[in-house]
Amino acid sequence: SYSNKGYKREFAPYMKVSVTDNKLTLTANVQYRYIDFDYKDLNTPTPIDFNMIKWNFINYGLGVTYNINDNTNVYYSFGRNNKEASRLDMFGGLDYYDSEVFEKLASEYVYDNEFGFRYKKDRFTLEVPFYHMNFKNELALNGLINQQGIHLHSSTNKSYRYGVELKLSYVNRLS
């Protein structure tokens, strides 16, 4: 049984708008996220105060899709998303607070660009997206594992990913 409690509160309203005109669709979305985290050690008469951690994020995305014909379209999207560190990562993999290992990690954010081609005919879909993701403070696996076998993360200053994917699907509908 744990001798501590972590309290995470979150508020996250979200809005999305989409406008279609003939062959063109424009989309935009925005999300505000407020998260706070507080911690109480039940074995300590006075609460541990590490200046309750708070995060405020604005995540957003913009996209455009052009329908070449009824079966084929091309699209581009751009967005920025944020993510807070987990309690486990801030506590150095421990399931309790230890001031020697505690680290208030910066939040991660990524700028994400994606350009793609999509073809859909009857039950068959082919999609080829090209992507580029540019991270700041990425919470990346660090090779460490805690006592329960959970992989831990550390904050990296800058990192990026890019590539192309090939997605094929065939839906067999049962009659």
Give a quick summary of the entry:
The protein is an all-beta fold and 175 residues long. It has one helix at 87-90; strands spanning 4-11, 14-21, 24-41, 53-67, 72-83, 108-121, 124-145, 151-164, 167-170. The protein is elongated.
Report what the structure shows:
With 175 residues, the chain is mainly beta. Helix content is 2%, strand content 66%. The chain has one helix at residues 87-90; strands spanning 4-11, 14-21, 24-41, 53-67, 72-83, 108-121, 124-145, 151-164, 167-170. Strands 1, 2, 3, 4, 5, 6, 7, 8 and 9 form a 9-stranded antiparallel sheet that branches. A hairpin with a 5-residue loop joins strand 7 (124-145) and strand 8 (151-164).
Structural class: mainly beta
- Percentage of residues in helical conformation: under 10%
Unreliable sequence segments: none
Order of helices and strands: EEEEEHEEEE
Q: Helix segment count?
A: 1
- Percent strand: over 45%
* Global outline: elongated
- Major β-sheet annotation: 9 strands, antiparallel
Mean pLDDT: 89
User: Using DSSP, what is the number of strands?
Assistant: 9
Distance between the termini: 51 Å
Radius of gyration of CA atoms, rounded to a whole number: 22 Å
Which structural traits does this protein have?
mainly beta; nine-stranded antiparallel sheet; 175 residues; elongated
Layout of strands and helices, then pairs:
Elements: E1 4-11, E2 14-21, E3 24-41, E4 53-67, E5 72-83, H1 87-90, E6 108-121, E7 124-145, E8 151-164, E9 167-170
Antiparallel strand pairs: 1-3, 2-3, 3-4, 4-5, 5-6, 6-7, 7-8, 7-9
